[in-house]
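Hi V.,

Quick status before I head out on leave. The structure for the redesign project is tokenized and pasted below; the design run finished overnight.
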């Protein structure tokens, strides 16, 4: 090994290039793979809400005979798996980060947790008084609406256009799905929602690959 390899470059251009390479390396290490942040959620929505549409189709039809409990159980299991994957990816990337960025992430996570608990607690008081199809629509539409709003909030906090646009997209299709009614809402969220999340993850990943 040449001992001169550990010495700093004497040429200004070489030093600048070394600094840029170190900055790129640090940026890659501190930014988790967008596919791990988006794709698991997209798959969860596509499969989970897709099963809801097949089992509880519009006008009381059943396109695929499944146990009543299977769509919700599948969706919940996939959402938990997606959250775990995102948590691990985020921990690896942001575990060494402190200061304002870490604080924003912690508070944003608390907003997700408390917002979800508050939502489900409130809905649990009223859904028993609704027909099954209307209760299912209320549950899914409000949960998806909260997701869209928090995605837009996250995009605003971190100035992430990709995340903000995804939040706008989710909010718009949620409104459209709610208007078309029970059964159809699940199809809209499965295809346009889950598909939109998969596209957002792909776009984010491609930007990471081609970032100078």
């Amino acid at each position: 090994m040449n001992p001169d390899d550990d010495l700093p470059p004497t040429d200004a251009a070489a030093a600048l290039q070394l600094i840029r390479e170190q900055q790129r390396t640090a940026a890659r290490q501190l930014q988790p793979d967008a596919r791990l942040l988006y794709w698991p959620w997209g798959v969860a929505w596509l499969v989970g809400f897709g099963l809801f549409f097949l089992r509880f189709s519009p006008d009381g039809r059943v396109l695929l005979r499944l146990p009543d409990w299977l769509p919700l159980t599948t969706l919940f299991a996939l959402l938990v798996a997606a959250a775990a994957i995102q948590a691990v990816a985020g921990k690896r990337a942001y575990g060494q980060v402190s200061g304002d960025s870490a604080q924003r992430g912690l508070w944003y996570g608390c907003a997700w947790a408390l917002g979800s608990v508050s939502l489900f607690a409130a809905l649990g008081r009223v859904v028993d008084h609704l027909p099954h199809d209307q209760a299912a629509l209320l549950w899914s539409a409000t949960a998806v609406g909260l997701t869209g709003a928090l995605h837009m909030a996250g995009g605003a906090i971190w100035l992430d256009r990709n995340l903000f646009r995804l939040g706008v997209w989710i909010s718009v299709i949620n409104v459209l799905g709610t208007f078309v009614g029970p059964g159809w809402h699940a199809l809209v969220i499965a295809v346009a929602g889950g598909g939109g999340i998969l596209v957002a993850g792909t776009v984010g990943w491609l930007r990471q690959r081609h970032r100078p």
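Above is the designed sequence. The chain has a mean pLDDT of 86.

G. will cover questions while I'm gone.

Best,
W.
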